[in-house]
Design brief:
The protein has one domain: Jelly Rolls (Sandwich), CATH 2.60.120.1140. The protein is 17% helix and 37% strand. The protein has 3 helices and 7 strands; from the N terminus they run αββαββββαβ.
């Protein structure tokens, strides 16, 4: 039964929008199935009110132009790692284990075009770090506003 579930999960991940995270040399770190927040309405709600999220799931926030991005955890019930990346998909910084239900501002130095949110501790568990790369598969990342 486990093999069947694993096969179905991997097949679903391979078909939908996903982000492959690799080390600069190309070694795979993880692949994440993503929901896409590509307009202001979707970005405003983000992952609020979620009680849980699969290990290899997340949300990619896509902005219209690189800028210093700031996030908060208002109405967000689970801890998240926030992965900030530039226009080339290079990770410029990570906010690990952002504290749920706070209005504290979370950000990293520099300008980001993308922010990938995953479960808290994901980056530590999978060795994701600044300098790694985000590769988009199953969709073209562009902002709708």
């Amino acid at each position: 039964m486990l093999a069947v579930s694993l096969t179905i999960s991997l097949a679903a991940c391979a078909e939908g929008p996903r982000i492959e995270i690799t080390a600069p040399g190309g070694d795979a770190r993880a692949t994440v199935s993503v929901e896409i927040a590509d307009n202001s309405a979707k970005r405003e709600i983000g992952l609020m009110y979620r009680r849980n999220m699969d290990e290899y799931a997340g949300m990619i926030f896509i902005f219209g132009a690189p800028a210093h991005q700031e996030f908060w955890m208002r109405n967000t019930l689970i801890p998240l790692d926030m992965i900030f990346a530039d226009g080339a998909g290079k990770i410029i910084g990570i906010v690990p284990n952002a504290v749920p239900m706070t209005d504290a501002v979370d950000s990293v130095p520099g300008d980001s075009l993308y922010v990938l949110e995953v479960n808290g501790g994901f980056c530590a568990r999978h060795g994701v770090k600044p300098g790694d790369l985000l590769h988009f598969a199953g969709f073209v990342p562009k902002s709708l506003d």
